Amino acid sequence: MSEDDRQARLDAAIRQHDAKLDHERELAAARGEEYTVPYDLGFTYSAGAPEVELYWHRSDAFVAFYLNNDFDEIGLLQFVGCWQLMLGPTGSDSPAFAEHRLFGKGLRWWRPHRVVNSTWIGPSARETFEHYLFAFHDEMLEAVADDVIVSKWDIPMRELMKRVAAGEIDGSRR
What we know:
By secondary structure, the protein is α+β, with helices and mostly antiparallel strands. It has 2 helices and 9 strands; from the N terminus they run αβββββββββα. The strands form 2 sheets. A 5-stranded antiparallel sheet has the order 1-6-7-8-5.
């Protein structure tokens, strides 16, 4: 089989999987259940990218993660007005991923999502807060916040987290 044929088969499988996820979302929406929709960060992260770092300051949570296995680019999420956050070892490579309450409701491996009709947020607060879900390689992050500010960095993780802790990086002031 040629490389072009392999790529065509892979592309077809991805389209088929995406169609299945769309169907799951439509079904959950029709039932009034919570479900996930893709969330565009403006960049992608590698399926194998490791190391999720968390720093909490006042009402904001900062989450940094490598975008690739070369460790040369870092994504930074600043959850502004964050009132709930869970970071756990149920990442995309974990058997527990298939047991997540949103599995079968549009949840895709190694991707960022927004949760619609979230059970974490009461109906009256859904106009104010957003529920975000990030499926990383080894961890899964869920956060409920007023907003999320996304940025990309090309400095070492240690330096970025020092700057976050020192208050030098605050996307709400940009």
